Amino acid sequence: MGDEFSDNDISIKNLPKIYRRDRGNRGGGVIIYHRESIVTKRLKEIEPPDSEIVCLDIQMPNSPKHILLCHCYRPDTRQILDIISDLMDIHDYSLKNNFFMSIFVGDFNTGCWQESAGACMGWVLEPPLSMWQ
Questions:
Q1: Is 125 helix (H, G, I), strand (E, B) or coil?
Q2: Ramachandran bin of 23, using left for φ above 0, alpha for ψ from -120 to 50, beta for the remaining angles
Q3: What is the gyration radius of the CA atoms in the chain, in angstroms?
Q4: Segment 2-36, tens digit of pLDDT
Q5: Domain of residue 79, residue span
Q6: Residue 4 covered by a domain
Q7: 2 inside domain
Q8: Which residues contact 120 (CB under 8 A, 6 or more apart)?
Q9: Residue 63 placed within a domain
Q10: What is the CATH number of the domain that holds 67?
Q11: Over the stretch 83-130, which tens digit does the pLDDT of each residue have?
Q12: What is the pLDDT of residue 93?
């Protein structure tokens, strides 16, 4: 995606809130849609400048707790360890700022279809995440 598509061009009925990060060249990017009733704030300050990541602070209903939601895309031209480093920095931010939970979703292009999912995810996520145990 890029400037040639406005938010109105890509809107979805009943999901009026749009947070997007356009790739700019060759199309693509990441986007999060949600209802007006969900209280959110985009955290551009923790989105790495060279990554396709959108991060939101979501206020839980009837609670003082917040959730950090990050939608990510790793093009196969970007090293997996670079995106893991970015996500570790974001997760560190969530710990320092007392988020109730951090959720990372998206397409990480890890090649898991070539191996068993358990073995692949263990290789990709276990060493970095063990730092916070």
A1: helix
A2: alpha
A3: 16
A4: 677 777 777 788 888 889 888 767 667 888 988 88
A5: 17-130
A6: no
A7: no
A8: 110, 111, 112, 114
A9: yes
A10: 3.60.10.10
A11: 889 999 999 999 999 999 999 998 888 765 555 444 454 444 444 444
A12: 96
Which residues, at least 6 apart from 60, have a Cβ–Cβ distance to it below 8 Å? 66, 67, 100
Is 9 part of a structural domain of the chain?
A: no
Residue 70 in contact with residue 55, Cβ under 8 Å?
A: yes
Model confidence over 40-70: pLDDT tens digits?
A: 999 999 999 888 999 999 999 888 999 999 9
**What is the predicted pLDDT for the residue at 128?**
44
The whole-model pTM stands at: 0.79
CA distance 44 to 102: 16
Within 1-133, where are the H helices?
Answer: 80-96, 117-130
Pairing mode of beta strands 101-107, 66-73: parallel
Domain tally for the chain?
1
